[in-house]
Amino acid sequence: MIETLKQPVLSTDHICMYFGGLHAVEDVSLNIQKGDIYGIIGPNGAGKTTLFNACTGFNVPTKGKVFLCGEDITNLKPEQIAKKGMARTFQNIKLFKYMSVLDNIKIGFHLNLKSNLVDTVLHTKQFKADETYAIEKGREILDLVGLSKYTDTKAGNLPYGVQRKVEIARALAINPKILLLDEPAAGMNPNETQELSVYILKINSLGYTVGVIEHDMKFVMNTCNRIIVLNFGQQICEGTPHVIKTNQNVREAYFGKGIVAGGAINVAAEN
Amino acid sequence: MNMLADTKKRAEMVFDKHKVLISLLLLAFLVLLPLISNKSYVMGVMCRILMYATLAGALNIINGYSGQTCLGVAGFFCFGAYTEAILATKVGLNFWLCIPLAGVITALVGLLVAWPTLKMSGIYLAIVTLGFSEIARLLALNATPLTGGALGIKNIPVPEFFGIVIKNSRSYYYLFLVLAIVFIFVSNRVIKSKIGRAWMSIREDELASKSLGVNASVYKAFNFMYGAFWIGVVGCVYAPYVRFIDSTYFTLDEGWNILSMVILGGQGTFIGPVIGSIIVNFLTEVLRPIGQWRLVAFALLIIIMMWYRPQGLAGATDSKLAGNKMVKKLQDRGKKHD
């Protein structure tokens, strides 16, 4: 019993991702437990998005393994991984811009609908059940996350911040075991970021496990309960926000060595 | 252009309000049309309009709804027509049995084209399908024992419907009409389902749809098969209609002709290919006096359309198919009004 409780939702086992000579991700092992909001941070080009892509099947890792609830998903395709219960959003919003918000969510239910071509043409009970399920569940999700007033709006016409929320809501439609968000606060003003933080905490309180890449330190420190720091593809620290804040390696990665040690200044003064 | 958009919006509103009534009136008109004018010339033109509307509609399922670029429509058409002609003359199979058979065989050919090209899109896929179209024609020209080679297949038997011989263009008119209605009915249901939504999501953003668990490869291949199925069915009805087919019926020109209907009418809409078919066939008849110069007129028309209304006459202004140009124009206009 304790074993199953401790089993992480998503874990990577010494995962490496090389592009030719470039070691984008080098030997990263992380464990995301159920109910976590897990932050992945690091300077630009640290390999955060590549790590995400390797987990969700958009890139096949060079070495190492990825496990979702103990199941090996290393070499599966993105759609198969989505079927196993991993949803993600993208750094640059990938909404279906010319469809209404509800239609966007409906596509998220794709895996839950069972009707085939014959059902579709003959409008059998299965088909009708599917369509009502998609519409009702879609409205339910929109209500839950507070987007119901945008139900019939074309997704491309929404403000940037709301588009982000719709993309996250759409990912929730596949009822994921874990939700991976790639820089959700990018390009947002402080107010929108604050709103997003509340939104993610709300989703987490509904029982979803969340993994999030972010640059905004205030956002990460306030929202996440565990954090991993990457630098040049390597994992330099993992732990609670407090541990991260006080870690020497992290400070060096973000602020550089000289000033922290004070050595450079001393040398200059002596000369 | 603004006027056109307004007209379209108003027409849609009226249609939504009296959906059943308008459909019934239109159906009654189409059914009674042969009573109004029974000239075989008029019936012949009507047959062509209906046939090309179905062909363009099927191509629109591929090009418009899933965003794949298929230029090989003449190739599928060729397969459908030859399947019927061979089965009817050599095997003596009943016409009505040939219809599903031709459809299925053409769909399998569609799968054959789609499977190796799943990772291609845009112009690369266009070139492959273009090549396929020519291969199909050359196959028909050179597989002499089966297709009669350059001589074609003569005396394709006429179908019978409970004792009524479908022979003149008037009875074919009804056959094409039923086919077009069945096609639009079935496709409308498919598009408004999980399958259609998956196709459109692939058109809008393939990566995003994959991340939501849509198996893009399978749906793209199925989309090709679905379109090819209907093109094959039309080909199957076309063969006994003309009673003689050879490879010159299925040149690339035929493919361009059908493609131009889809583009003129509007990709990704149901009414678009129908409008396109009416316009192109009507212009073909009107411009007959100037002979080959009518092709120049078509080319000019298409270029002008591409410039001013890339989404086609019936296409939505706010769709991906309209390109960013139209959307931007509209937004600018909106700003001016504010």
Written overview of the protein:
The complex is a heterodimer of chains A (271) and B (338). Chain A is α/β, with parallel strands linked by helices and 271 residues long. Chain A folds into 2 domains: 2-85 and 176-270, Rossmann fold (3-Layer(aba) Sandwich); 95-169, no CATH class. Chain A is 44% helix and 22% strand. Chain A has 13 helices and 10 strands. In chain A, strands 6-7-8-3-9-10 form a 6-stranded mixed beta sheet, with helices on both faces. Chain A has a 4-stranded antiparallel beta sheet with strand order 2-1-4-5, covered by helices on one side. In chain A, helix 4 packs parallel to helix 7. The longest helix of chain A is centred in the middle third of the chain and has 20 residues, at 125-144. The radius of gyration of chain A is 21 Å and the shape is globular. Mean pLDDT of chain A is 86; it is low at 264-269. Chain B is mainly α. Chain B has a domain at 42-251. Chain B is 75% helix and 1% strand. Chain B is built from 15 helices and 2 strands. Chain B has helices at residues 2-17, 19-36, 40-65, 73-91, 95-114, 122-142, 144-147, 169-191, 194-204, 206-211, 216-242, 252-265, 271-286, 293-308, 323-337; strands at 160-161, 164-165. In chain B, strand 1 and strand 2 (164-165) form a beta hairpin. Chain B is globular, with a radius of gyration of 20 Å. Chain B starts with a helix and ends with a helix. In chain B, 44% of the residues are buried. The chains are: A alpha/beta (271), B mainly alpha (338). Chains A and B meet through helix 3, helix 4, helix 5 and helix 6 of A and helix 8, helix 9 and helix 10 of B.
